[in-house]
Structures
1.
Amino acid sequence: RPLHKLTEARSNFNWTEECEKSFNSLKQALTTSPVLTYPRTDKEFILDTDACNEGIGAVLSQKIGNEECAIAYFSKSLGKPERNYCVMRKELLAIVKSIEHFHHYLYGRKFLLRTDHASLRWLLNFREPEGQIARWIQRLLIQRLNYSE
């Protein structure tokens, strides 16, 4: 988050010790394993999603042999309004945004969605949804997904 704050519109550029640590951590993460693998059309995709107070993220992978191999990663910082969402809504946002981000891999394909929250079951059983929840349900219903918690 320290590096992200430096890019905000009305922030003064002040490189701190925390920024340096964050930058070095980012460099380390980008230059070391795990190495990404190419997607295989003959294998089912696996989408793991998660959310926290600061952001959402996902890993798209496939099981090749006995090993689960990462294909791509997704993350997004939450804006101020989104940070006020309850945990369930943040988890749902992670699911919806991750599926949208990886739509070119997932569209029209059956895939496994893994989340650490019962939000998907809650969402699909929600009676008479309105507004944002209704739109999220609509987006998810066009997908061919299995899910596990």
2.
Amino acid sequence: MITLQETVHKECTEREQLKDALIEARQQLLTMKKNGMSRRKYLVEFVIIIIII
């Protein structure tokens, strides 16, 4: 049986991993945008990354 402490630790770890993945995705998208990606393509890439995560 999983204790409350273990559950909280697991949830916090998963949240931190998700946060890190979102930060990385945001950086990638900002780089693409900076390199001249159109607004429409930028939004499509953003949605794809969010779906993957």
